[in-house]
Amino acid sequence: MWPPLTYAQKLFLLATLPLVLAVAAISIVVAVQSRSLAESEIRELETRLTEAKKRELENYVALARTAISKDYGRALPDDEAAKEKVIQTLAAMIYGQDGYFFVYDYDGTNLVAPRQTELINTNWAGLTDASGTPIVDELIAIARRGTGYHSYVWTKPSTGEEAQMVTYVVGLQDWQWALGTGIFIDDVLATVASARAVTEARVQETFVWIAVITMAALLLVFLSGVGLNIRERRLADAKLKALTQRIFDTQEEERGRVARELHDSISQILVGVRYALELARRRLRTGDDRAEASLDSGIDALGGAIQEVRRISRDLRPGVLDDLGLGPALQSLVEEFGERTGIETEFETAVFRNRLDQEAKIALYRIAQEALTNVERHSGATRVSVRIFGHTSGATLRVADNGHGIITPTGRAPHDEPAQGLGLRNMQERIERLNGTLRIFGARDGTVIEAQVPLSHMLPPESGSDTPRDAETERKSA
Q1: Cα 315–Cα 317–Cα 318 angle in degrees, nearest 5
Q2: pLDDT digits (tens, 9 = 90+) for 465-478
Q3: 397 with 388: CB under 8 angstroms?
Q4: Cα–Cα distance list, 460 to 212, 329, 330, 362 (Å)
Q5: Going by C-beta distance under 8 Å and a sequence separation of 6 or more, which residues neighbour residue 137?
Q6: pLDDT tens track for 142-197
């Protein structure tokens, strides 16, 4: 059985294992990415060279068609004299060491092959190259369609060796001929192979240098970390203890707040329920007719306790906000506010294509919650409206009431003046974290609070959002 590791051994392993894993990961990533980039560049080079060859072939075929246009354009499909003249013209058009024009009729018989005369007047239908790629049949098929390219292995007239060839074919539909020319791309393949070899060598060299630099850097980090880790450990432990204590203090503060909520509301209501039920029990034992009234009173009080529990739960974290989105959460908040306070409420949300991110949803919900709390406690309003809508600048929440309004010492509404109350300061801080704006319009006949978040907190619309069903979904999830 292995003995337990000492602190120094644990520290060494903790520093060594990340070093080894980092070096391995960096090596793999560098190798894969370097080769991928090199291969991409080589493929791009090959494509450019091949495209240049193809454009060259198109020019050759265009010259050939120009050369035979006088005889071909005026001839009838059975004009043998014109055909013979065209054959002679094409047979004389050779270029370079291996360049020439070939002609096959649609039956597969070769009519022109000046550098490989053994092919002439022989039917080559079904001919394939060494790898099984069809040649003549595919050339004829391309000609029937009009024009196109075909690549296959063919024997070079100058050397007698096989090499990759690219051909360009056009169809002379009146005579049912396939006219084309080809160019060997062994020089392209050689250039690509050379580039691949050079690139691979550079990749290897770069990889070696990166590995050396990485190892040196990681070793330096490792040695520095080992040296600093021991010296800073006590300070880190002290900071950790302080952080842990802070977390405990925060938890205790939150527990104290919830405890006060429970004691000031739920506990008192439940005590009242208990007294009502005990009174009902005594009256039942004595046959007092008022026992039913005591039971009704207890049941009503118990319903109030349930509502308080729901309110406390919603204040901690509204579940509907996560499940259905900002729109339904605000609607539920406004409806519950109206039922609890008796204040006439109105809620409106406009359909807009963009959607808010989670941070903005929570902030706007809390701002609406704080605004309604202020309406209930301070405004003396009889009507309040809440509206959430999107526009070209972002999204805006608007809460308006008909209370006595917020009046500054000068007797004027504050408009954009800094918020003075604790609730208003909380609103201001929340909207500032979103880089938004909070405006308060106050007067003797009511107050309007507008919170606007910028487009940076808007998500792009989902696909298909133009349909009525998707629009309704966006309205609910706004």
Answers
A1: 85
A2: 444 444 444 444 45
A3: yes
A4: 45, 21, 22, 19
A5: 108, 125, 126, 127
A6: 999 999 999 999 988 888 888 889 999 999 998 999 999 998 888 777 877 887 78
CB 420 within 8 A of CB 380: no
For the residues of 269-330, what is the DSSP string, one character each?
A: HHHHHHHHHHHHHHHHHHT-TTHHHHHHHHHHHHHHHHHHHHHHHHHH--HHHHHT-HHHHH
Identity of residue 401 = D
Longest dimension (CA), the chain: 133
> For the whole model, what pTM was predicted?
0.40
Q: Are 359 and 319 in contact (CB under 8 A)?
A: no
Nearest of 477, 452, 447, 476 to residue 363 by alpha carbon: 452
Query: How many angstroms separate the CA atoms of 108 and 140, rounded?
Result: 7
The number of residues making up the chain comes to 478
Q: How far apart are the first and last CA of the chain?
A: 61
How many Å apart are CA 83 and CA 52, to the nearest integer?
32
Query: Cβ distance 431 to 359 under 8 Å?
Result: no
3-state secondary structure of 401: strand
